[in-house]
Amino acid sequence: MIYDSTEDILRQISCSKANFETVIDGKNTMLFTLKNSNGMMVTLTNYGARIVSIFVPDNNGKFADVVLGFNSIAEYLKNEATHGAVVGPYANRIAQARFRIGEKEYLLPQNDGEVCLHSGPESWYRQVWDAEEELNSVRFTIHSYDGEFGFPGNITASVTYRLSDQNELILEYHASTDKTTHINLTNHAYFNLKGEGNGDILNHHLFINADHYTPIIDQRMIPTGEIAKLECTPLDFRRLHQIGDRIAWDEPQLKWAHGYDFNYVLNKSTDELELAASLFEPESGRIMELYTTEPALQLYTGNFLNDKERGKAGSFYQPYSGLCLETQHFPNTPNQPNFPSTMLYPEQQYSSTTIFKFNY
After folding, report:
1. DSSP 126
2. CB within 8 A of 292, min separation 6: which ones?
3. Backbone angles phi, psi at 255, to 5 degrees
4. pLDDT at position 263
5. Are 53 and 160 in contact (CB under 8 A)?
6. 19's torsion region: left (phi>0), alpha (psi -120 to 50) or beta?
7. pLDDT of residue 96
8. Among 18, 228, 254, 321, which residue's Cβ finds the most Cβ atoms within 10 Å?
9. Under 8 Å between Cβ of 208 and 238
10. What is the predicted pLDDT for the residue at 238?
11. What's the rounded Cα separation, in Å, for the pair 305 and 69?
């Protein structure tokens, strides 16, 4: 859907607010709006601490919502749960749904065969977070009890969304625990810079600042433990190129994943904020740059989106209707000692920042 003015967008948001007001497990859900001086707008909900919409102009000044999602809490409850949500305590996959800390083994929910994906089917993306509005920002907080989803520790986590006048949506994550645990947080927004519901993302051009990735064993999508070069593989995005160019190549990694669903090891040696990726859509001219303090980025091209999910603009989602650029640590790190650690100790504070910056 194309919007000619910010007034049109505000009217749409106003009409949608009631659809996001309900009660889940005794907690109220609602819709929040951020707006900057350029007319860019972001809507958020505390159900899953998720991004609902991001309205960005194109090179003709026309606005579109560039994030996939739904028009009500009822639809988020019914449909695939991770759209726009904060995923935790551990994003991505943990093999055999288990890990050890010291002598103790922790068993997790299995929701992708024998794998624990995104901490199980009812984890933080299915929870109502506490919300606190501040100056052009919203802070969401969640408390997870010791043993919830199998993870040790009473964990408190928060994410603050802030919209700058430089068209930056800034995500700041924090977490603490009273028992040694594993933490790996990300946002699972699906982006389509043509506009949500406006076809696929195969014409988008992508750059990822990574020379290496973690290959997978098979269709279970668990890393082998190797850190391999991207050079001479169809997974190489070290130079800006079209996503659809190689997605259907006859290559085992792509066939197992049904497209792109891979962990890229970013070219960074510190936890400083650096450029991780850039995405360009030639029809609209929209550009999104991604900055992060995290060591890795999971590229997922929506390979399993399906036509049972009708999005905000009324179109049914199909494979490749959107793509995720999930800043995080590596998959299955709790079982791979050679990967950068995701262990969080009681005396530590987890802190991570990701920025989505838009231009045209």
Report:
1. G
2. 266, 273, 274, 276, 327, 352, 353, 354, 355
3. -70, -40
4. 98
5. no
6. alpha
7. 96
8. 321
9. yes
10. 97
11. 12
Helices (H), 165-284: 252-257
State CA 20 to chain mean position distance.
Answer: 21
Instruction: Output DSSP code: residue 125.
Output: G
- Structure tokens belonging to residue 314: 């009324």
Same CATH fold, 205-338 and 2-187?
yes
Residues found in the chain = 360
| Residue 58: both structure tokens together | 């194109």
For residue range 218-247, list pLDDT tens digits in order. Answer: 999 999 999 999 999 999 999 999 999 999
DSSP codes, 79-119: S-TTTT-EE-SB-SEEGGGEEEETTEEEE----BTTBEETT
DSSP strand pairing (205-208 vs 168-177): unpaired
The first and second tokens of residue 47, run together, are 């159900």
The structure tokens 């949506």 sit at 169
Q: Decide if 188 contacts 208 (C-beta within 8 A).
A: no
pLDDT in tens, 108-139: 999 999 999 999 999 999 999 999 998 899 99
Structure tokens at 204: 């988008």
Residues that are catalytic: 188, 326
Q: Which residue ranges make up each domain of the chain? A: 2-187, 205-338
Q: Is 303 left (phi over 0), alpha (psi -120 to 50) or beta?
A: alpha
205-338 has which CATH code?
A: 2.70.98.10
Peptide bond into 89 cis (omega under 30): yes
What's the half-sphere exposure (Cβ side, CA atoms, 13 Å) at 14? Answer: 6
Block mean pLDDT (10 aa), the chain, length 360: 86 92 97 96 98 96 96 92 95 98 97 95 96 95 97 98 98 98 98 96 98 95 97 97 96 96 96 97 97 98 89 92 98 97 97 96
Distance CA 171, CA 163 (A): 9
pLDDT score recorded for residue 325? 98
What gap in Å lies between CA 287 and CA 44, rounded to an integer?
Answer: 21
Q: What are the residues whose beta carbons fall under 8 Å from the beta carbon of 216, sequence distance 6 or more?
A: 222, 223, 224, 253, 256, 257, 262
∠ CA 260-313-10, rounded to 5°: 115
Quote the tokens at residue 3.
């919007």
Architecture of domain 2-187: Distorted Sandwich (2.70)
